[in-house]
Amino acid sequence: MTNPEFNRRLARATAAWVVVVAAGSLAAPLAHANGLEADLRALAEADPADHVALRNDLIHDGGVSTDALVEVVGSTTDWQVRLEAQAVISWRTDVARAEAAWSALPATTRAGFWRFTETDLTDPVVTPILLERMAHGDEHAELRGALAEVIARTTGEDIWEAPFAAWLTTEPSAFVREGMVHGLRDASAATAIPALTRALSDPSPGIRAEAARSLTSHESGALAAEALRDALSDSDAGVRAAAARALGVLRVSASASEVAALAADPDAEVRLQVLHALDRLDRPRAAAVAVGMQADSDARVSRLAVKLAGGAQ
What we know:
Helix 5 packs across helix 7, helix 7 packs antiparallel against helix 8 and helix 13 packs antiparallel against helix 14. Strands 1-2 form a two-stranded antiparallel sheet. The protein is mainly alpha-helical. It is built from 18 helices and 2 strands.
């Protein structure tokens, strides 16, 4: 179940933040906010070994009201400060649920992956705690990857978007980065498109391919069309295939000639996605290209080519 008090405070803070940004004013609404922001900044920069003690001090600090924390959430443009304030609010709002989220462990799926299955962990009341774990919990890569997956399933809030976008440039584990890239397919366009565009240049080919797939699934994915067209020349076949598919699904008609140029790609999956994409982008071109692919060495490609060639011979 959701916590009405937490949701009320979070909604109020979010509304205040929108008003502040829209007005172009970044001034703290209360005189003491700068000092509190400095404390929260120190908390954000603390080593994992020191973080819990500092966080607990702030939770129990009688001189810092929860309303003051809400004001900081609503006024700051620093996502790290905002996250620390939200985490402290969560701890104060429901300590039992916060403790459970801080210590929860994932289950192992049949495929051997770790995944959190508790539905309570997708409630916004504990999302700041899970993000706090990713930032300060000193968890190993598999657990951080499971945290990223469940955080992206949070219902009704998007406080995880800015951390994910920022962590993509600093997270050392490709496994965790891939989980965050996957989650960003559900983020707002303002956050997702720049972050996923950058991810198309990630050192890991798996992440580059996942970025293309996430853009395919995003309603505004076509905004990254130029980066996806560049990805057609990626050194990794999986990335080329994902980029071709994305351009087709997103109906980026201007890319048809570049996609068609991959009809002779050495990788069968790339050739298959080229045909699928051309079928969406330019049917006459798809039929013409398919004529020369009907005898392809891959059965999937040849079957589709025969179908698309139709009467073009």
